[in-house]
From TrEMBL:
It comes from Akkermansia biwaensis. Homodimer. The keyword ATP-binding does not apply. The keyword Cytoplasm applies. HAMAP family: HemL_aminotrans_3. It is an enzyme of class 5 (isomerase). It is found in: Cytoplasm. The modification N6-(pyridoxal phosphate)lysine is found at K265. InterPro entries: 4pyrrol_synth_GluAld_NH2Trfase, Aminotrans_3, Aminotrans_3_PPA_site, PyrdxlP-dep_Trfase, PyrdxlP-dep_Trfase_major, PyrdxlP-dep_Trfase_small. Keywords: Cytoplasm, Isomerase, Porphyrin biosynthesis, Pyridoxal phosphate. This is Glutamate-1-semialdehyde 2,1-aminomutase.
Length: 426
């Protein structure tokens, strides 16, 4: 038995399914996960010494690549000043100022420890601010494992066929209205029926947890308009897209001002961090100023703040976003050519450094169309890529992430592997 197999066997005995988060399991590709020994730049090394080009990037945070020097240095310096205080520290102010500067709609922000906490808190705040109960969520969007948001969810919940989780009583989700993404009529109807009791619409502005697809025909502008019309809040969950598709996320790209924004991933530089922010008038409803309670012993942890700040500073220097776009465009061109040579017309989506290959030739714009992608083709493709030293997420519903540490050579090697893997599919 190799090291990973031994570790997985030990893990299964003491950790449910052997993993601390379901997306790490290989259930959807009928195998066992490998264990990572270390990661640097665009590469991970597994417990058996195998080196892989990584397109998971810690599921988003590793935008500079793994263990970048500026982040490591900042973390080492912070550690030397203590690991956490539970008392205000300067780096929390630096981080809040940085987020307010980068994200157009955010006037005030509060730090939390995960994306789940960010969405959970934003929903509570929206309800507290509006005095309303209902929320609209889109089918296939994933917002973490918050009870009221585990309805028709994406990511691992979808991969493992449990978009509505056991353990969430129906009463907890009765106030959640679910509608298909990009479906204006369904949204209009929900507002017509429940408008005066809808606290907020929450969405991933580019859904990236059921594959990756995009708003069509001004869908985001439509949502902004209808939420204003009914005095409901618009919540962008930019946990994936924030600081990734542009310094200010999708809201910057599309020129939309949501009322609240959920953030995570990149601002932690790999350490556990999330945040939610928005209009000052709404954020000031939070305790201790207002009556909406929200808290966290470790929130704004100085080591995590140091890592995130160092990463954001690097991103703002030079031409990081142009470079991510260049690398993304190179990968896209290569993969499209490979698909064409293979004689197919599979759908490939990309936004800067985020990408997804769907094994379907049909247009993908919501969960239903994303699910037309063939799992039967994805599985051998995934294993073929891994055999050639390229690690894509072990699920057809996840998005790939390119980092600034990927080189043209890495991208070209990946494209070669895609050519070979597709041709092996026959
Ligand atoms: N929102 C979105 C859009 C996400 O992609 C995720 C996780 N991938 C979350 C929320 C939850 O974040 P976390 O896993 O940090 O709780």
């Amino acid at each position: 038995m190799n090291q990973s197999a031994q570790l997985f066997s030990r893990a299964r005995a003491v950790i449910p399914g052997g993993v601390n988060s379901p997306v790490r399991a290989f259930r959807n590709v009928d195998g066992d996960p490998f264990f990572v020994q270390s990661a640097k730049g665009a590469y991970i090394t597994d417990a058996d010494g195998r080196q892989l080009i990584d397109y998971i990037g810690t599921w988003g945070p590793a935008i500079l690549g793994h263990a970048p020097e500026p982040v490591l240095n900042a973390v080492h310096a912070a550690v030397n000043r203590g690991l956490g205080y539970g008392i205000p520290a300067p780096s929390e102010v630096d981080m809040a100022e940085m987020i307010v500067r980068m994200v157009p709609s955010v006037e005030k922000v509060r730090m939390v420890n995960s994306g789940t906490e960010a969405t959970m808190s934003a929903i509570r705040l929206a309800r507290g601010y509006t005095g309303r109960r209902k929320i609209i969520k889109f089918i296939g969007c994933y917002h973490g494992h918050v009870d009221s948001l585990l309805v028709a969810a994406g990511s691992g919940a979808l991969t493992f066929g449990e978009p509505d989780s056991a353990g969430v009583p129906r009463e907890m989700t009765q106030l959640t209205i679910t509608v298909p993404y990009n479906d204006r009529e369904a949204v209009k109807k929900a507002f017509e029926l429940h408008g005066r009791d809808i606290a907020a619409v929450i969405l991933e502005p580019f859904p990236a947890n059921a594959g990756l697809y995009f708003p069509q025909n001004g869908f985001l502008h439509f949502l902004r308009k209808i939420t204003r019309q009914y005095d409901s809040l618009l919540i962008f969950d930019e946990v994936m897209t924030g600081f990734r598709v542009a310094p200010g996320g999708v809201q910057q790209l599309h020129g939309i001002t949501p009322d609240l924004t959920c953030m995570g991933k990149v601002i932690g530089g790999g350490l556990p961090v999330g945040a939610f922010g928005g209009r000052a008038e709404i954020m000031d409803c939070l305790s201790p100023l207002g009556s909406v309670y929200q808290a966290g012993t470790l929130s704004g942890n100085p080591v995590a703040m140091a890592a995130g700040l160092a990463q954001l500073r690097e991103l703002l220097e030079g031409n990081a976003y142009d470079r991510l776009e260049q690398l993304g465009a190179r990968l896209e061109a290569g993969i499209r050519e490979a698909i064409r040579k293979h004689g197919r017309n599979y759908t490939f989506h990309r936004a800067g450094s985020m990408f997804c290959l769907f094994f379907t030739e049909e247009e993908v714009y919501d969960l239903d169309t994303a699910q037309k992608a063939s799992k039967a083709l994805f599985k051998p493709f995934f294993w073929n890529m891994l055999e050639q030293g390229v690690y894509f997420a072990p699920s057809p519903y996840e998005t790939g992430f390119i980092s600034l540490a990927h080189t043209e050579e890495d991208i070209d090697r990946t494209v070669e592997a895609v050519h070979a893997s597709l041709s092996r599919l026959g």
